[in-house]
Amino acid sequence: MRKRSLIAAVALAAASIVAGLGSPAHAATCNGYVGITFDDGPSNDHTPALLNALKQNGMRATLFNEGQFAASYPGQVAAEKAAGMWIGNHSYTHPHLIQESQAQIDSEVSRTQTAIANAGGGTPNLFRPPYGETNGTLQSVEQKYGLTQVIWDVDS
Predict the structure, then answer these.
(1) What pLDDT digit, counting tens, does each position of 92-135 carry?
(2) Which helix (H) or strand (E) holds 115?
(3) Rounded to the nearest 5 degrees, what angle is found at the Cα of 21, between the Cα atoms of 17 and 23?
(4) In a 10 Å sphere around its CB, with 0-12 CB exposed, 13-18 middle and 19+ buried, how is residue 82 labelled?
């Protein structure tokens, strides 16, 4: 229950920030925006509540899916896509990638690309490294798959 309350609180707080921007046309001309991302998942336990909170507040977010969960819950990946969310790659098993070989990193990234695509989420073009850890080897693998790395600047 705690995670569901957190999801709703984050969505509501972000909605109040975005509401101050006015109409979409106004938002396009404002000096900034709030990018909302959620990592891990999807799951049957939390993804529906998250999507509902975002939808109720007229918001979109980037959902960084782990490949193992995208493969286990393909219906939730399809629901994310149907709700208009952006879906990114967050590795297959959420390891410390900078401690892995290039071949292991490649496997984590490619298996997740495949799992998300097979679940109906399209081919991701964004990658959020687990723990925010990155290095040149990881970045070269991201480049191979046409992925743009996304790192947060505000952490919950």
Answers:
(1) 999 999 999 999 999 999 999 999 999 999 999 999 999 999 99
(2) helix 102-118
(3) 130
(4) exposed
